[in-house]
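# nightly structure sweep
# worker-07 picked up a monomer target from the shared queue
# config: single-sequence mode, recycle default, output format = structure tokens
# input follows
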Amino acid sequence: MVFSSVVFLFLFLPAVIALYIICPAKLRNGLLFAVSLFFYAWGEPVYIWIMLFSTVFDYTNGLLLEYFLANKERFVNYQKYRKIVLTVSVVGNLGILCFFKYTEFLLTSLRNLTGTDIHIWKLALPIGISFYTFQTMSYTIDVYRQKVKAQHNLIAFGMYVSMFPQLIAGPIVRYASVEQQMNDRVLVPAKMAAGLQRFIIGLGKKVLLANQIGALWTEISTQKTGTVLGAWLGAIAFMFQIYFDFSGYSDMAIGLGHIFGFTFPENFKYPYISKSITEFWRRWHITLSTWFREYLYIPLGGNRRGRTRQIWNLFVVWSLTGLWHGASWNFVLWGIYYFILLTIEKIFLGEKLEQLPGWLQHVYTCLVVLFGWVIFANENIADLGRYFLTMFGANGALYNQTAIYQWYTHIPLLIVLIIGSTKLTKQLLRKGWTRLKLIDAISSRQEQIRFVAASIFTVLVLYCSVAFLVSGSYNPFLYFRF
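# output follows
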């Protein structure tokens, strides 16, 4: 079940919200746990046991970590025992993740490298495993570090792991960020309304923008013969598709969190307005970057042990970041690509960039990110090479009638995408208030106008999104496969 489906929008979600409102507060964790399991089982009934095992596994590990600390007088080597528990947790979680996500990739690579006849296991990837594995790992690590207390209620912990708003594609919610909200949250109508609005805006980003430009990328990437003009348009299309697809899902997840009384961390902050790659990764998939920084980069030493060690730490982090996104060599290459760029920026390019005009910094960043998305989108290395050759005129004509037509018919959508990926909308709205002299109006009148305008816009987005869902068939979620 996906958020952008008629079943979810008009059956599952209304029923869950209604049940949640009438449910006694002390039973709401159990309700969310139950409906989240149903949500997951709807699309992945076979592998729900893996998520349940991870839940019980790290729930137990958290209690053991707390037990040895609380009884350190009885256990002389209590810290040693706690390290053993933590190691078991990390190895167990990574073992499950690697088995299901990377077994086929590793066996295939080994067969191609050695030329031996190795039987390849075809394992389906459990939906959301990369996300909930990182969440449960962060919990046990934080309990070990004594940053959070162990959760004694299995139902509450199960709800944290399986909560359907962010289960499938994030954001990655660390336990510390919602610990106080687990048993201390209230339903606030204003927050629920804001959450519903955030959900609808995210739905619109996904259905009205990502799906439409994504269809163009699919069309261009599957053409037998390409052109320079078409290849660049395809790369730009994927660049916008993945942003509006993923940020739209994050908006929907955060909005649903508000409806149920939670505050999830932001995952995107206009990444395409960045003026360096370093800044881009402070704005893109923020919860993943934060996770790797807190649980890998800093424990490895970060930038505290000299330049050489810092570069090595960056290499480890970005190689694993690439692999986290998928079991394919293009993702490894994508991670190393950003490792090289970030290292160059840290060593000398960052200072040089700051001396350039802002628009030139922005052009540099957008081009580098665009090339990165070409690597990301082409899992077959041979196809990747051909696509780059086509972009630079070495594998096709400059243009043809199809490419010209595609550009011409998609210019309005591209303009909307550009505006939607920047802060320009808010700036234009602010200027509009000023010119209409509504800024000087009494506060209540101003708020009424804004509320009515926002409500009309939200209803319009919902109506158009549902219309597109009912009439269209192209509705993928790119990050579901990670």
